[in-house]
Amino acid sequence: MIPEDLYYSEEHEWVRVDDDVVTIGITDYAQDALGDIVYVELPAVGDVLQEGAVVGELESTKSVSDIFCPVAGEVIARNDALDGGPEVINSDPYGEGWLLKLRVTDDDPTAGLLTAERYTAITSA
Fold it and tell me: Gene3D superfamilies, alphabetically (predicted)?
């Protein structure tokens, strides 16, 4: 099930908006396609990220996949719990498996993102 209150990128990241802070993770569709996630590489707090840039990696038993930044902003938090337990991304991708929190630099961080309805159409095509 795809949460209705989030926004999505075509690269299968999700974005939760809370004023000028966004939380970013990967979708259930993405974690399922990757398989068991065994390692996560994330940018450091304080890094300034550009929309669309590769900002990290997810390594699974199947492959290594890039993490793309769906919005521009400065990293204000990273989910350090993933260092010791990356498998939480598989079990709870929309909750405890979040990746980053950014302070956004765009006036409308959702401008280039998909609604849940549009994302559902892409993943079920």
Answer: 2.40.50.100
Q: What is the pLDDT along the chain (125 residues), one digit of tens a residue?
A: 899 999 999 999 999 999 999 999 999 999 999 999 999 999 999 999 999 999 999 999 989 999 999 999 999 999 999 999 999 999 999 999 999 999 998 888 899 999 999 999 999 87
The DSSP output letter for 10 is T
Q: How far is CA 66 from the centre of its chain?
A: 11
The residue among 80, 24, 84, 17 whose CA lies nearest residue 52 is: 24
CB-count burial class (<10 Å; 0-12, 13-18, 19+) for 7: buried
Dist CA 121 CA 30 (whole Å): 15
Phi–psi pair at 109, nearest 5 degrees: -65, -15
List the domain boundaries for the chain: 7-113
